[in-house]
Specification:
The complex is a heterodimer of chains A (537) and B (307). Chain A is of the alpha+beta class. In chain A, 28% of the residues lie in helices and 20% in strands. Chain A has helices at residues 8-15, 27-30, 65-74, 123-133, 150-154, 185-189, 199-205, 259-267, 282-286, 314-322, 326-334, 361-370, 391-408, 419-427, 446-449, 466-475, 481-498; strands spanning 45-49, 79-81, 88-90, 93-98, 104-109, 166-170, 173-177, 221-227, 231-236, 250-254, 273-274, 291-304, 339-340, 383-388, 412-417, 433-439, 502-514, 518-519, 535-536. In chain A, the strands form 5 sheets. In chain A, strands 11, 12, 13, 14, 15, 16 and 17 form a 7-stranded mixed beta sheet that branches. Chain A is globular, with a radius of gyration of 25 Å. The two termini of chain A are 14 Å apart. Chain B has 307 residues and is mainly alpha-helical. Chain B has 13 helices and no strands. In chain B, helix 1 (2-29) packs antiparallel against helix 13. The N and C termini of chain B lie close together (7 Å). The mean pLDDT of chain B is 89. Classes of the chains: A alpha+beta (537), B mainly alpha (307).
Chain lengths: 537, 307
C-alpha cells in the first residue's frame, strides 16, 4: 500500500462504514472499526521501530516525535487527533463549547475516564498537571501562551496560578480563557504538553516516576517493560474508557538506529512498521509493495545571513534563489518523492502557498550584475554553505554549490560541522549560508511564519522587516480562515519573493515501510499514528 | 613485587583526579551546550534547566560541587536521558558490554594465538602467508562492513542466527562477538607470530635444540611463555576497550551496551555522562594495565626482580 495523495484514504473509508458498528460510535470513528470478526483470530500484537530510545516518557519534558509516539499510547489529553486528517476529536473531554469570539473554551470531561490504577480522571487532575507543565523546564511551555496569563506566570511576572485563565467549574468541567483568539488552540490541547499526569506520584518518585513499576497513565495502553536500548512493551490498559475499541493487546517498540538492521527484521516479519528507511537503498525499497510516501509538515531550506556581505543585498539573495534548480535536487539526487519547493510553508489546513522564485538563470545573472558582482565587476567574498554532518546534507550542499558555479560562476565552499557547533554558528550569525529545516508543531501556517519575526530566537538570519511583523500581529487576531490565509500569503510573498532571507529547497515527505496486515494506520502530515486505532488482520 | 604493587596503587587516585579535572574543564570549552537545539528555547527555559541540573554558577564552583557528589558515589543526572541518572545508565549498559566483550575476547584470543603459532612454526609456507593475509584483512576490514555481511549470511541466507537483539548468554551473542573480535584476533595472530619467531631464534632455544629436546617440548615449555609477552601487554588496553563496548557493533546488532554512551554523550554535550564514561574507562585502563604488569611478573622473571 503506497499513499501518494494525502486525504484520499480517509474519504474512501468514511463512505464505507461497516454495518456492525454500534450506534454509540460516532461517524468519524466508525470508519476505523474492523469489519466482521476476522481480527479476533489474528494475534493482536504490533511491533515497530522507533529508531531510538526515548529521551524521557514524561510528556511535559519531551520534545521529539519518537517520545510523543509513546506518550500518546500512555496518556490521553482532553482532545485527540483524528488519525487521518488530525481533526481534533474527543479524548478525555466528551465535548467542548467555544464562546463567540473564540476566547473561552469549556471542556466537558467524560464520567468514565479512568487512570490505569482505576481512579477517575477529573478536571482537578488537568489543573494540577497544567500547573506542573507550565514550568520553564518544559521546552514546549510556549504552547500554553495563548492562555490568558500563562506567559506572565511562566516568567514569574504573575505569581498566583489562580490568575491564569484555567478554571475548574466542577469535577468534570474545565474552562480555559485565552488572551486572544487562537484558531489552532484545540490542536495544542491535543499535544503531550497538555496531557494529564499524576502529580502526587511524580512528587513521590521524582524522575523515576516513568518506570514501569511507578507510572500511572490514562491512555489506551500501559507500560509493561522499558529495557533501555532493548525494547519497550505496552499492554492494553484494562481501565481505559474506550477499551472495547482498542484492538491491540501488546505493542513492542524497538529502538534500532541502524536502519539496515531494521530492514532485515522487517523482511523477517519481526517488524510491522519502520518509519525511517536506509537512504542509500531508496531505489530498491521503492519497489517494495509495503513502501509508502506522503507529504509531511516540514520544509528543508537554506538561511542567508543578511547581516554580512554579500547577502545584505536582497538582489544577491534573490539571484541565489533563482539560480537554484530544486527539481534536479529532488528528482536526480534524493529520488524519494520529496517535493521541490520555492515556498516556505507546505500546504496545510486549506492553506495554498505562493509561487516563489522558480529556476531562472537569466534573471539570476541580471540581479547579480545589478548588485555589482560578476565578471569585470567586484568579486564576491569567500562563501561557504555550512551544514551539520550528514551524508544527505553534504550531497545537497555540493549539488547546489555546483549549480551556482554553473549558473552564476560563483565558487562556493561547503563545510560540515558537528551538530552543536553548527547550532552555535547559526545562532551567533557566524555563517554565510546555513542548511536548515523546520517541522510544524501544529496544523496551521503560523507555526512556520512566526519564526521569522524580528528577534525571534528561531529567526537566525538577522533579517528584520516591520511590515512582516505587523502582518504577523494582525494574523494572530484574525479568526476567519479565508482572511487568515490571505495574510499568510502576504507573509510568504515577503519571505520568499520579495525579501528572501531564506532559500526554500523542498517539502519533506514521510516515507517508510508498513506491512499490509496492519490496518487503522493512516497517512497524515504530522506522521502521527495513534496506536489506539491500529489492528492487524 | 608487593612494594611495587603498593606504589602503583597509590598513584591510581592521583591519576584519576587529574583525569577528572582535565575532562571537566575540557568539555566545558567545547562550543554549544547541553540544552542548545534547532528550536530556540522559550525565555526562562535555559535558566530553569541550568538550575535544575546544577549547572549554575561559575565552572569552578560547579567543579567543586561535582567532586563533593562524586566522592559520595553520585555521578549526577544525564542531561539527555532525562529519566535516568548516570549511575543507572552505567549499571544498565555495562553488563551487556562486559558479556559481549569477554565473549569476543575469548574468541579472538583462541583464534588469534592458534593462527599466530601455526604461522610462526610453518613460517614462510603457504599456510603462513594465507593466515597472515587473513589477519591483514581482519585488521583492515571495517566493522560496519563485516557485521552486516555476517548478518546477511547467517540470518538472511542460512537462517541459523538472529539478526539482532540482546538476550544475555544466547545465540544472539555470536555474530556481534565475532564482529567485535575479528580485528583483535588479527592483532593477536600477528603479535603471537612475531613473538614466537623472535624467541625461536634466541640462543636458549638453539641450546635446547642441541640438547635433543623434541620440537613439541621446545615450543610448549620454553618458547610459548616468552612468545606471548607481547600478546599479554596488548591484552591490558584490549580488555579495557573491548569491555566498554563499540558504538558500531552496538548499533548494527542493537545491543544495549555502553559504547554508544561514549560517543553520544560527547556529541550531546551531556556533561555528567561524559564524566561518567571517562571515569569508568580511565579506571578500567588503570586496573587492566596493573593486572598486565602482575601477569608479566610471572611470565618474565626479569620484571619485578629489579625492585
Amino acid at each position: 500500500m503506497a499513499w501518494l495523495c494525502l486525504f484520499n484514504t480517509a474519504d474512501v473509508m468514511a463512505e464505507g462504514v461497516p454495518g456492525n458498528v454500534p450506534n454509540s460510535v460516532p461517524g468519524w470513528k466508525a470508519a476505523y472499526v474492523p469489519e466482521g470478526e476476522v481480527w479476533k483470530y489474528t494475534e493482536q500484537h504490533f511491533t515497530f521501530n522507533n529508531g531510538t530510545d526515548p529521551e524521557t516518557l514524561d510528556p511535559h519534558l519531551m520534545t521529539g516525535l519518537p517520545e510523543m509516539r509513546l506518550a500518546e499510547a500512555l496518556f490521553e489529553g482532553l482532545v485527540t487527533y483524528d488519525p487521518s486528517d488530525l481533526t481534533p476529536r474527543p479524548g478525555v473531554a466528551e465535548s467542548w463549547d467555544v464562546s463567540d469570539g473564540g476566547l473561552i473554551y469549556t471542556f466537558h470531561l467524560r464520567e468514565d475516564a479512568k487512570w490505569s490504577d482505576g481512579k477517575a480522571v477529573t478536571a482537578h487532575d488537568f489543573l494540577s498537571s497544567w500547573k506542573r507543565s507550565l514550568n520553564p523546564v518544559n521546552r514546549y511551555i510556549n504552547l500554553f501562551f495563548p492562555i490568558a496569563g500563562a506567559e506572565n506566570y511562566s516568567e514569574s511576572k504573575l505569581t498566583d496560578f489562580n490568575e491564569v485563565g484555567i478554571r475548574v467549574k466542577d469535577s468534570h468541567t474545565i474552562e480555559v480563557v485565552l488572551h486572544a483568539p487562537c484558531p489552532y488552540f484545540l490542536d495544542l490541547v491535543a499535544f503531550p504538553t497538555y496531557y494529564p499526569v499524576r502529580v502526587e506520584l511524580i512528587e513521590k518518585f521524582n524522575e523515576k516516576w516513568t518506570r514501569p513499576e511507578n507510572i500511572v497513565g490514562n491512555g489506551p495502553f500501559v507500560l509493561k517493560e522499558w529495557s533501555p536500548r532493548e525494547q519497550i512493551v505496552f499492554e492494553k490498559n484494562p481501565h481505559y474508557w474506550d477499551r472495547d475499541f482498542v484492538k491491540l493487546e501488546t505493542v513492542t517498540v524497538l529502538p534500532i538506529s541502524d536502519l539496515n538492521t531494521a530492514y532485515k527484521l522487517f523482511q523477517d516479519d519481526k517488524l510491522h512498521w519502520m518509519p525511517a528507511l536506509p537512504v542509500a537503498r531508496i531505489e530498491e525499497l521503492k519497489r517494495n509493495p509495503d513502501y509508502y510516501v506522503y507529504p509531511m509538515l516540514g520544509t528543508y531550506f537554506y538561511r542567508f545571513n543578511v547581516t554580512k556581505l554579500p547577502f545584505d543585498d536582497v538582489r544577491v539573495r534573490k539571484a541565489f534563489c533563482l539560480a537554484t534548480d530544486r527539481v534536479e535536487i529532488c528528482n536526480e539526487l534524493l529520488k524519494g518523492g520529496e517535493q521541490p519547493s520555492s515556498h516556505f510553508c507546505p500546504p496545510v489546513a486549506g492553506y495554498k502557498p505562493v509561487e516563489g522564485l522558480k529556476h531562472d538563470i537569466v534573471a539570476a545573472r541580471n540581479l547579480l550584475a545589478a548588485a555589482g558582482y560578476g565578471k569585470d565587476k567586484k568579486a564576491l567574498p569567500k562563501l561557504e554553505i555550512i551544514y551539520n554532518t550528514s551524508e544527505g546534507h553534504k550531497m545537497i550542499a555540493e549539488a547546489i554549490s555546483q549549480q551556482w558555479k554553473q549558473n552564476l560562476g560563483i565558487d562556493m565552499g561547503t563545510r560540515n560541522m558537528e551538530w552543536k557547533v553548527y547550532l552555535d554558528n547559526q545562532n551567533n550569525l557566524d555563517y554565510s549560508i546555513s542548511r536548515s529545516s523546520w517541522i510544524g508543531d501544529y496544523a496551521d501556517p503560523f507555526t512556520f511564519f512566526s519564526i521569522f519575526r524580528t528577534d525571534d530566537g528561531n529567526n537566525r538570519t538577522g533579517w528584520t522587516c516591520r511590515e512582516y511583523d505587523e502582518l504577523l500581529d494582525s494574523v494572530s487576531v484574525t479568526l476567519d480562515r479565508k482572511e487568515r490565509n490571505k495574510i499568510f500569503n502576504e507573509l510568504e510573498r515577503l519571505l520568499v519573493e520579495q525579501e528572501c532571507p531564506v532559500l526554500p529547497i523542498y517539502d519533506y515527505v514521510n516515507k517508510g515501510l508498513i506491512k499490509e496486515s496492519v490496518l487503522g494506520w493512516e497517512a497524515n502530515i504530522r506522521d502521527v499514528h495513534p496506536l489506539k486505532y491500529i489492528w492487524r488482520e | 613485587m608487593f612494594r611495587y604493587l603498593l606504589r602503583r596503587l597509590v598513584f591510581v587516585p592521583i591519576i584519576l583526579f587529574i583525569l577528572i579535572t582535565i575532562t571537566f574543564f575540557l568539555v566545558r570549552m567545547a562550543p554549544g551546550g547541553p540544552f542548545s537545539s534547532d528550536r530556540e528555547l522559550p525565555p526562562g527555559v535555559e535558566e530553569a534547566l541550568t538550575k535544575r541540573y546544577n549547572l549554575d554558577g561559575s565552572v569552578s564552583s560547579q567543579y567543586g560541587r561535582y567532586l563533593v557528589r562524586l566522592v559520595q558515589g553520585d555521578l549526577g543526572p544525564s542531561l539527555k536521558q532525562k529519566d535516568y541518572s548516570v549511575n543507572e545508565i552505567i549499571a544498565n549498559h555495562l553488563p551487556p558490554s562486559i558479556l559481549l566483550g569477554i565473549t569476543a575476547l575469548l574468541i579472538s584470543l583462541c583464534a588469534g594465538v592458534i593462527a599466530g603459532l601455526v604461522s610462526a612454526l610453518k613460517s614462510n609456507s603457504w599456510l603462513d602467508y594465507s593466515t597472515m593475509a587473513l589477519a591483514v584483512i581482519g585488521i583492515s576490514l571495517p566493522v560496519f562492513v563485516f557485521g552486516p555481511l555476517l548478518q546477511t549470511l547467517f540470518s538472511r541466507v542460512f537462517h541459523i542466527l538472529p539478526v539482532s537483539g540482546y538476550r544475555g548468554i544466547s545465540l544472539h551473542l555470536i555474530l556481534p562477538a565475532v564482529t567485535l573480535g575479528l580485528p583483535f584476533a588479527a592483532r593477536f595472530a600477528r603479535l603471537t607470530r612475531a613473538g614466537m619467531l623472535e624467541i625461536l631464534s634466541e640462543d636458549f632455544i638453539t641450546t635446547a635444540r642441541s640438547k635433543g629436546l623434541t620440537e613439541r617440548t621446545i615450543v610448549l615449555r620454553h618458547a610459548l611463555k616468552g612468545a606471548l609477552l607481547p600478546v599479554v601487554s596488548f591484552l591490558g588496553p584490549a580488555i579495557a576497550s573491548i569491555t566498554t563496548g563499540s558504538l558500531v557493533v552496538e548499533k548494527i546488532f542493537n545491543i544495549p551496551g555502553l559504547g554508544r554512551e561514549f560517543v553520544e554523550s560527547a556529541l550531546n554535550r551531556d556533561y555528567f555522562m561524559i564524566m561518567g564514561t571517562v571515569i569508568l574507562y580511565g579506571t578500567l585502563i588503570i586496573i587492566c594495565n596493573l593486572a598486565v604488569d602482575i601477569v608479566y611478573g610471572f611470565l618474565d622473571p626479569r620484571v619485578g626482580n629489579a625492585d
